[in-house]
Design a protein that fits this description.
Structural class: alpha/beta
Number of helices: 16
Number of domains: 3
Strand content: 15-25%
CATH architecture of the largest domain: 3-Layer(aba) Sandwich
CATH topology of the largest domain: UDP-N-acetylmuramoyl-L-alanine:D-glutamate ligase
Mean pLDDT: 92
Distance between the termini: 52 Å
């Protein structure tokens, strides 16, 4: 899977560097961890958000590393002194974090060039689109790789991932494994963090997708403009053949009109509004939408032909996600009737508007909605399907953007009939202070019930809901833990809901 490379050959891919020592040495792996540095490995020493990898060069050398690549900018005198004393090859590189992918890709044998990559970015919808694409491509073309929030690997054989988008070395290792296992397509979530930090630098996508842009991650990005610019980076590759962009989103319209994005542009929309932007390759649109208790139907218009579609998914945003999927599959050249048939067979993705209950019991929907926009859209979506009242149960994560907490409360107050506020990964923050932030967004005193124990909150909602009501449990989705004081405690909304509905837990 890895391909030993002579350093001087690798350095031809990085013209802006200074090399010291014997460049005839070969490496066959790369790592950002000094603890994983072994013979034959290159240690990549770059500053990180929490620690500076250049402070660990000495440890990497003691562990037997063969070579060191080091970020040139901002070296301290002590770091420079350690480098000058090295007896192994070392290379100074400016903006090294943007070139890690070049190193990893070369060592892994350039797997990305032998596959068709689909990159999906946006605040909400990435996971659903990624999963749907991977499942449908698997049915139509065989093994398909997947990278994102719910895991990395082949369809139905995912390994849990820490981040939505892994660091560059892990990405290329995973691509090599997928290629070796027979995958020729990979659907990949691309987060704003990954784009800002250059984790996907050097990857060339066949299709790039933009879903939407709403408030999130402002604990990392300075403002919404910086957040938007990070997303935009995915679409600026001059070699990118196709982009599929949500025309119902304000920033999506800007991307469609952006002259620096030279790819063929496919717009998708759930509205009937005309899209008056020149040089658009085509539009994927849903019209005459009918929402039903367990799904929806609509007329589909595409550049590849029109037809009637029946989906077993809930909500307008899932309709929007499916239009993005249709746009991608059309760009990739799949047969429309075949991929629509496969799409109609798809069930809800675990923890994404996943419905349990019904049939004499309240319907309980588990969803990952953890932003104001996502919560609002989830509640609006359920209102279209509901015959009774809507219960909303949510909390907000600790050590994350506190500004969205009152905004989420406002959305719940506006679109739900009942609200229960609970914990959702408080991390190192005081959960009572998080709850206070959420409550500050409510206009009606006493509208919300506070129950910080998440299981008790879920039980409370289900026991009090009537058979025609819908209970939305938002925020955790597929997650299987509750993070308190940075300790993971086993917890699954999905499993607890099913146990509660089956009467296993009294």
């Amino acid at each position: 899977m890895t391909h030993p490379l002579v350093l001087k050959e690798l350095l031809k891919l990085m013209p802006d560097h200074q090399a010291f020592g014997d460049m005839s040495q070969s490496i066959q792996c790369a790592t950002l961890s000094s603890k994983e540095s072994t013979q034959g490995c290159a240690f990549i020493a770059v500053p990180g958000a929490m620690v500076d990898g250049r402070d660990y060069i000495k440890q990497a050398v003691e562990n037997g590393v063969t070579a060191v690549f080091c970020e040139e900018n901002g070296l301290t005198p002590e770091q420079q002194k350690i480098l000058n004393q090295l007896t192994i090859p070392w290379i100074l590189v400016k903006k090294l974090s943007l070139k890690i992918g070049i190193i990893a890709n070369a060592i892994c044998g350039n797997p990305a060039a032998k596959m068709k990559l689909i990159g999906i970015t946006g605040t909400n919808g990435k996971t659903s689109i990624c999963q749907l694409l991977a499942q449908i491509i698997y049915q139509l073309a065989g093994e398909c790789g997947q990278m994102g929030t719910i895991g990395n690997g082949l369809v139905n054989r995912l390994v849990e991932s820490i981040n939505t988008t892994s660091e560059a070395i892990t990405i290329h290792k995973n691509l090599a494994k997928m290629l070796e296992a027979g995958a020729r397509y990979v659907a990949m979530e691309v987060s704003s963090h990954a784009l800002a930090q250059g984790r996907v630098e050097g990857l060339h996508y066949e299709v790039a997708v933009f879903t939407n842009l709403t408030r999130d991650h402002l604990d990392y990005h300075q403002n919404m403009q910086d957040y938007a610019e990070a997303k935009r980076k995915l679409f600026l590759d001059q070699t990118l053949p196709f982009v599929v962009i949500n025309a119902d989103d304000a920033f999506g319209l800007k991307l469609l009109a952006d002259p620096e994005i030279t790819s063929k542009k496919i717009a998708y929309s759930t509205k009937n509004n005309p899209i008056n932007i020149p040089k658009i390759f085509g539009v994927v649109r849903a019209s005459e939408v009918q929402y039903k208790p367990k799904g929806m139907s609509f007329n589909l218009e595409t550049p590849w032909g029109d037809q009637q579609v029946e989906l077993g998914l809930l909500g307008e945003f899932n309709l929007s996600n499916c239009l993005a999927v249709i746009g991608v599959l059309g760009c990739l050249g799949f047969d429309r009737s075949e991929f629509i048939s496969s799409l109609e067979q798809q069930k809800a993705i675990p923890g994404r508007m996943e419905c349990f209950g019904g049939g004499g019991k309240p319907s309980v929907v588990v969803d990952y909605a953890h932003t104001p926009d996502a919560l609002e859209k989830a509640l609006l979506a359920l209102r279209a399907h509901a015959n009774g009242e809507i219960w909303c149960i949510f909390g907000c994560g600790g050590d994350r953007d506190p500004g969205k907490r009152p905004m989420m409360a406002l959305a719940a107050e506006k679109y739900a009939d009942h609200l229960i506020i609970t914990d959702d990964n408080p991390r190192n923050e005081d959960g009572n202070l998080i709850v206070a932030d959420i409550l500050s967004g409510l206009k009606r005193a006493g509208f919300a019930v506070v129950e910080r124990d998440r299981n008790k909150a879920i039980r409370l909602g289900i026991l009090n809901a009537k058979p025609n009501d819908i209970v939305l449990i938002a925020g955790k989705g597929h997650e299987t833990y509750q993070l308190i004081q940075n300790v993971k405690h086993a917890h699954s909304d999905r499993e607890f809901v099913q146990q509660q509905l089956q009467g296993v837990i009294a």
